Amino acid sequence: MPKTRHRRAFPRRIARKAVSLLPPARADAATRMARATRDLVTGRPAAKPAAPSLSPAPVYRSRPVMPRMKPKMPVGDTSGWTLPPLSEGHDIITEVLYDTGPDAPRFDVELFESLNAEYADRPIVKEPTSFVAADRIETARNRIGWAEKLVNLRGKTVLEIGCSNGYETYLLGTNAGSDAYGVDVNARGAWADLAGDTVHFECADMTVNNPYEHNTFDVVISYVVWEHVTHPRALLQETYNVLKPGGRAWIRANLYCGPKASHRYRDINFPWPHLLFSEDVIRDWDVKEGRSPRGPSWVNRLTWDNYRTYLDEIGFRLKHLQFQEADWDEEFYQRFENMLGRWPRRDLERDFFLMVVEKPA
C-alpha cells in the first residue's frame, strides 16, 4: 500500500510543480481544470464555487516575469596548467597602430577660431532666417502652405505646439476658417494683439500641465520646436491624447546629429560644432568674441530611430516621412573622423525630418 500511494503521489507532485511555474492567472485556470477532470473521472460532486473576494484585483506585469538564471557552472580544473613566465615588460607597449600622439588636435578655443575663419567664405547656412517681424510673417504664411500640402487645415480645430509669436496660429484662425490654438512655454507680447474669437493662446508646458482636453483637435502642427523639448516622448504622448481619433499631426524638427543642430549658424560657420567641442569651449569663444556666453542652443539628443520607437510605443501611425539632408563635407569629416565617427554617418547626414502621424480612428 505505501508503494501504491507513492506511485500516485509522484505525478501529483510533478503537476503541482508545473502549475507553480505558471503566472498566477494561468495557474488558477490550470488548477480548476485539473480538479474538474478529477471530479469527472471519479464521479465526485463538483465543489461549490468560493464566494468572490472583495480585495482588489491583482495587477499583472505586461510581460511575463522570466525565471532567474542559475549561477554559472564552475570552470574546469586548471590547476595543472603551465603558467606564462613573469616578464619585466608586461606593461610596456612596443607598437601602436593608432597613436594620437602630441600632434592630435586639441578641441579648444584656438581650434574653434581657426575652423570658423576657414569656413567664413562658405558657411553651412548662407542666408539664415530673418528675425524682422515682416519677414517672420511671410515665413509663417509659407509654413501654412507647406503643411496644407499634407494635411487639411481649413475649417478644422488646429493646435500649434511651440507657436512663438503666434503668426501661424493667427493666419489659420483668421484666413482658413479654423479654430486655431497656439501653445508655448514662453508667452509673447504679440499674443494680445493677435488673439480673437478663433485665435487662442496659452502659455503652458503640455508635458507638465496639459490645458487641453483629450480628443479635442483635428490637426496638430509644429515647426522646428521638438528638438528643444526637454521631454519629447511625453509631448508626443500628450499630442496623441489631444488629437481626435483619426486626427493628424504635422511635425518638422531638427535632429541632434545634423551639422546645423547647434542652432548657432549665424555665428558659427563650420558643421557639427556641438559634436566636436564642449559647451564650455563654445561659451569661452563667445566671451572672447565679446558676446554673452551662450554656448550651443539646447537641443535634446534624439535621432530619428528614437522618434520612431516613441511613435510605435504610443500608437501613432506614420503616414508621411521625409528627411532634409545637408551637403556632405567629406574632407571635413575625414579630418575629424576620430570624433565624428562615433555617430552613424546616416545620422550625421540628416538635418531635419518632416513627418505626418495619425491617431487611429
Looking at the structure, what is the overall shape?
flat
Helix content: 25-40%
Class by SSE composition = alpha/beta
CATH topology of the largest domain: Rossmann fold
Low-confidence stretches: 1-5, 51-64
Supply the number of structural domains.
Answer: 2
CATH architecture of the largest domain: 3-Layer(aba) Sandwich
Class of the largest domain in CATH? Alpha Beta
Main sheet strand line-up: 3-2-1-4-5-7-6
> Strand tally, please?
7
Q: CATH superfamily assignment of the largest domain?
A: Vaccinia Virus protein VP39
- The arrangement of helices and strands along the chain is HHHHEHEHEEHEHHHEHHHE
Distance between the termini: 67 Å
Average pLDDT over all residues = 86
Radius of gyration: 32 Å
Percent of residues in beta strands? 5-15%
Question: What about the largest sheet?
Answer: 7 strands, mixed
Helix segment tally = 13
